[in-house]
Structures
1.
Amino acid sequence: NGATVSAGTYSATSNSAGAYSIFLPVGTWNVTASAAGYVTHVINNVVVNANQTTTVNFQMVAGSENGEDVIPITATELMGNYPNPFNPETTLSFALKDAGRVRLTVYNLKGQVVKEILNSDLPTGYHKYIWNGRDQYNRPCASGIYYYKMESADYQHVRKMILMQ
């Protein structure tokens, strides 16, 4: 809420749901999202075509450009993946309040392990990992619904994601 999204001289402010709209002329744009207490995020080379809607989603990460004035992590939390749906890869993000062992695993609809993304000790902070849509044997996964689960000493949570080929 309240993030400024801009492209060139055009800008908008996100609403309470994080949504925004900017009407841009046809062309290629660098789109920036910024908000107090968050790292500025830029997506380069966004192509805007005539008579089409172009969607640019941002996942803001708490912090600052120089590492100062970082918002403290008050809870361990598994965040939504970005983008979702995705092809061929997506970013899995989480906040870790206390340092410790973290396991991040992708499952299919049957509950079978598709890929273990992470199983190691991590420091407190914000963490991001990319899943490339491939299984443990580096084979491409089929389109469909997958689940990713984060487990730590005192936390576990599952979220859904969609791979579209």
Note: The longest strand covers residues 113-122.
2.
Amino acid sequence: TGICFGPMDPTDRTSKTHHRRLTTVAHEFTHILGMNSYDIPYYYNPKTGRPRTSRNEYNKPPEENVLCVNGQRQTVEKASSDTIVQVTTANGYVAYEVVTETVRQVVRNQFGCQDLIGGRLENQPTGDDDCYGSHWDHRLYNNEFMAAVYTGSTQYVTALTLALLEDSGW
């Protein structure tokens, strides 16, 4: 596979298009590095080197039928509750939050609230078979380069995504 930039001049490093292209490549590589709903059940504890979620004899996490962000029930490989949890938002919607140690502390620091439990993921599945998204919720983290929606404003690699990558143990 490759990356097709279409009719753009790859030597042009000054344009807004070039910056957006680099951000897009970094965004997609971050999915490969672990910010992907399918990878979350396979995270390791970076301190112990052990899987965060128990595995069976085939090295697979347990499957469970859960309520997804689209309101449908689905059987998924379920990550441990010290990795991701299902929450109900104030307006009654199902959401999922990454609750690993570093992610939780970054979110608490960012919002100045020590009661927050984790980093909210997008409220739509990223792919057809996803139960929850593979991006941060754009309403809370709109300038984060791993947010679900590109708003046209400058996107930043933040401590939140770096915390997730650290906590993945990968």
Note: The beta strands are 63-67, 73-77, 84-88, 94-98, 119-120.
3.
Amino acid sequence: VVDEPVIETVTWNDNTDNATCYWDDATKWNCSDGTHRVPCAYDKVVIPNRSSYPYHGYTIIATNPFPPFTSFYLGYRRTLTLKNGWDNKIEAETVTIFGETGDNRAATLTCGGGFTESQISNRVWIVADELKLENAGSVISSSGYGSCNGGAWHDATGMAESDSGSYGGRGTASHGHTYGSITEPTAPGSGSWRTSNYKQNGGGAVRIQAKRVVNNGSVNATGTGGSFG
């Protein structure tokens, strides 16, 4: 006989203004029996809408791997930043991102970056039966979180002024080698480079494995805009 997993709803409880908090702080989570602990396997994880004034920034940083959950909900006026490694992921039967437009009401799932080729460390990776980006303020983004080494990321001897990113196909004036797949990209993008003062990060990586996706929001992995200064 296999015991059924215990499914508990664990809810984030902090609404501090202009806060940066950490996922693994047990005091920030409430269980239905009034105790406090970090979400564990098969929990229903709720980071609720932040509807109280004031409406300034609020970020939760995750630095440890997640177990698989039953469901995961990220509400508006919240940003969850994944800094817990390339191979870690949010895995749940249902993943819901519920942002809204206006008044800084977005719900944003993002990652850390940029990085060098030898230090590829973060991406947004979601595994779900159903992924729901409920509305226009629902955002998954790794924009600007790719390589910070310039257009010659994959060709250390080829750096030249005005190089731009080379993922898939060569960027404008690029001397770096192309790399990766155009049709099934997995790696982060390479950055642009003019001089050490004008380096820009490439786009990061977003990986979504879902049986069903409802996308009324946006999924972004753009590079940082270059400039001659």
Note: Residues 151-162 have pLDDT under 50 and may be disordered.
